[in-house]
Amino acid sequence: KYSVVIDTGRAVVQARVVKSASGLIAPLDIDLSATPIIEWQWRAESVIADADNANSSTEDAPLRLVLAFDGDKSTLSLRERLFAERVKLLSGRDLPYASLMYIWGNHRAPESLIANPHTSRIQKLVVDAGKGKLRQWRKYRRNIVADYRRAFGTAPGRLIAVAIMTDTDNTASQSSAYYGDIRLAPAGPDEIGK
After folding, report:
1. What is the mean pLDDT of residues 94-113?
2. Are 180 and 41 in contact (CB under 8 A)?
3. Which of 4, 63, 96, 120 could form a cystine bridge with 68, CB 3.0-4.6 A?
4. How many helices (H) and strands (E) does the chain have?
5. How far apart, in whole angstroms, are the C-alpha atoms of residue 59 and residue 144?
6. Average pLDDT in the 172-189 region?
7. How far, in Å, CA of 104 to CA of 65, rounded?
8. How far is 4 from 62, CA to CA, in rounded Å?
9. Whole-number Cα distances in Å, 97 to 37, 100, 112, 121, 182
10. C-alpha closest to that of 39 among 179, 159, 192
């Protein structure tokens, strides 16, 4: 369940999840050359004790910021195209060419890159982890283009969606978290070319 609540005098999204997974998606069509930076805030209320995002049976996270990208799907391997077809049959939605997820991890250190167990076209980047920073608003500023290059080895296509997701379906647990402002921004002088 996602709802808008007031926290520290501002409207934020509260996510509450019990043995399930869902997300809120905002479709976009952005050329990242002008705004390659993403800034956001979030707050984890708890970690998911049994979660490990490298393992398909325990792939849960209290916080995820998901970026979806366009690209030439005909260049993907047969395995990747078949996986995308299965996802479409099950969900009724097209899988983007690539997805980069910023996550609150559990057992992996910040800056760890984790491939999705089912497809290389979904990569997870741990930006925070563990219990030490729970119940605190955390602010982030990331260079999407640099992070995409690190995850996929090429420049990103157009940014076609941003989503938030809190999930506990694999671990059959519960969690709550908060999401603050999310915005795209131009690169600063020290962030250009990174």
Report:
1. 92
2. yes
3. 96
4. 2, 11
5. 23
6. 91
7. 9
8. 17
9. 20, 11, 22, 7, 22
10. 179
**For the chain, what is the radius of gyration of the CA atoms?**
16
Chain position carrying tokens 């991890």:
105
What are 9's two structure tokens?
Answer: 């005098």
pLDDT of residue 105: 85
- How far is it, in rounded angstroms, from Cα 6 to Cα 194? 36
Structure tokens at 62: 């209290």
**Whether 176 contacts 46, CB under 8 Å:** yes
Tokens of residue 64, six digits: 């995820």
Span 24-44, average pLDDT = 96
- Rounded to an integer, the average pLDDT of 73-91 is 91
- Closest among 177, 188, 187, 125 to 151, alpha carbons compared: 125
Strands, DSSP E only, in the chain?
2-7, 10-18, 21-30, 37-44, 61-69, 98-105, 113-115, 122-129, 138-143, 159-167, 174-185
| 174: three-class secondary structure by DSSP | strand
Cα distances (angstroms) measured from residue 64 to each of 46, 72, 73, 126 = 14, 25, 24, 9
The angle subtended at Cα 79 by Cα 78 and Cα 80, nearest 5°, is: 90
Strand order in the sheet with 98-105: 21-30, 159-167, 61-69, 98-105, 122-129, 113-115
